[in-house]
Amino acid sequence: MLPAFGGHATAGDVRWGALCGVAGALAIVALYRGLAVGTMGIVSPISAVLGASIPVVYGLIFRGEHPGWFAGAGIVAALAAVVLVSAQPGARFFPRGIRSARGRRRLRLYFIALAQTRAEAGMVPLLAARATSVALLVAGGLAFGGVANVRIARPALGLVVLCGALDVSANVLYVVAAHQALLALVAVLTSLYPAATVALAA
Questions:
Q1: Which of these, 45, 53, 49, 51, lies nearest to 86 by C-alpha position?
Q2: What average pLDDT score do residues 142-156 get?
Q3: Is residue 3, in this structure, part of any structural domain at all?
Q4: Confidence category of residue 94, pLDDT binned at 50, 70, 90
Q5: Which pTM value belongs to this model?
Q6: How does pLDDT run across 38-92, given as a tens digit for each residue?
Q7: Would you say 119 and 126 are in contact if contact means Cβ atoms under 8 Å apart?
Q8: Distance CA 45, CA 5 (A)
Q9: Which pLDDT does position 88 carry in this prediction?
Q10: Which of these, 36, 141, 151, 182, could form a disulfide with 65 (CB 3.0-4.6 Å)?
Q11: What is the CA radius of gyration of the chain?
């Protein structure tokens, strides 16, 4: 994606990207832990709501964003929709979901930090974020499980590559959107991903 978007990144852009990478690595570990001990259709929506709420507040208060009343109503409706789409009979949201709440806070930091980069930086901050995340995850895997913990089984390689391509593509679109629209709106639209997750879980 770097040649396609071009741009010139400053040291500040790279630092924000690296901070994104730290937050992203910690968040993905917490998310996978939540999915391991909880229900996919519950953990994913909880992470999305918490991941969107703080960027919305940050955009409104610290960036001085002022979405119109119609957009504001849409923000509220979207956050409510993410909760409702995960509703299941007898489901207990917080006992399992809260276990990964610290990871959700880091996910919110990811969205905020990535939005601080300059549009002129192109995708360099995202590259810095991914490089940092990979380094931390590999180091953590080696520390807690040795080489076997970071080796990808051949049958899973295709799926891993597909997931990585989709993940990076989604982050590229987020960077483009965050530089062209209000963070409060972009973060909420990003939080709607559990609709697909819940459908696949079902």
A1: 45
A2: 84
A3: no
A4: very low
A5: 0.74
A6: 776 677 667 777 777 778 888 888 888 888 889 888 888 888 887 777 665 555 5
A7: no
A8: 32
A9: 56
A10: 182
A11: 17
* Owning domain of residue 92: 8-201
2 within domain boundaries: no
For 68, how many CA atoms within 13 A lie in the half-sphere containing its CB?
3
112 within domain boundaries: yes
Contact call for residues 202 and 41 (beta carbons, < 8 A): yes
List Cα–Cα distances, 189 to 37, 63, 67, 140, 141, in angstroms: 27, 18, 14, 31, 32
Instruction: State the DSSP H helix or E strand holding residue 159, giving kind and residue range, or none if neither.
Output: helix 154-178
Report the alpha-carbon distance of residue 177 to residue 115 in Å, rounded.
Answer: 9
Tokens 């969205």 locate to 111
Neighbours of 6 (CB within 10 A): 11
Q: Is the C-alpha dihedral spanning 83, 89, 92, 96 positive or negative?
A: negative
- Amino acid 172: pLDDT: 92
To which H or E segment does residue 121 belong?
none
Report the alpha-carbon distance of residue 168 to residue 123 in Å, rounded: 10
Q: CA nearest 53: which of 78, 71, 16?
A: 78
- Overall domain count for the chain: 1
Q: Cβ(188)–Cβ(108) under 8 Å? A: no
The number of residues making up the chain comes to: 202
pLDDT above 70 covers a percentage of the chain that reads 86
Q: How far is CA 112 from CA 10, 59, 69, 88, 108, in A?
A: 18, 9, 23, 31, 6
